[in-house]
Amino acid sequence: MRIGVKQIRILLADDHNVMRRGLRLLLESQPEFTVVAEAADGRQAVEQAEATAPDVVVLDIAMPNLSGIEAAQRIISQRPNTSIVFLSMHSDEGYVLRALKVGAKGYLLKDSAEGDLIEAITTVHRGKTFFSREIGRMLVEDYVREIRTRGIEDSYELLTSREREILQLLAEGRSNKEIAGALNLSAHTVETHRRNLQDKLNLHSFAELILYAVRKRIIS
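-> structure tokens emitted (220 positions)
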């Protein structure tokens, strides 16, 4: 640990030793990062998260004994302030949606981990979301394709300026209370705006809201 530098405490969970070793070397090259533990399967990841209290867990989505999705769900239930970044070979939307539904803040493809992981950890530690560029592009392309196939106009145009503002803050991970303070509104008013924008956009969960925001490039 470097003296005088505030550390981001990281747990690395991947069942491939070589992958874990490479990621550890990459992360420990950063003065603000410290890897506090490693895990070779999902069950170990949950145990190590409880034992070491990391700020960020970098988690392979496909692991033995306990899947990355299930491990993330248990870690977040025990430590809701811990941020999860998934590493995956899978770029289809189904996996991304499952990751977001359990509360993950980041989703990276393994082949982009070397270039993206440092930025991803820093970003999710600030409470924001981060996706590999390939994932963001795929979500945008899927959205455009759906719009054309269904022959509908972009419902984003239905939102008021205040609803758009609140959508962005929600997508950045702000709570209703934080948004209320930032915009000088009551929490009740923020919740009303949130319900209205979700109705207009046909969004039924926070995960869907995040996906929509990425597709619209409101967040990256």
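Residues 133-150 form the longest helix (18 residues).
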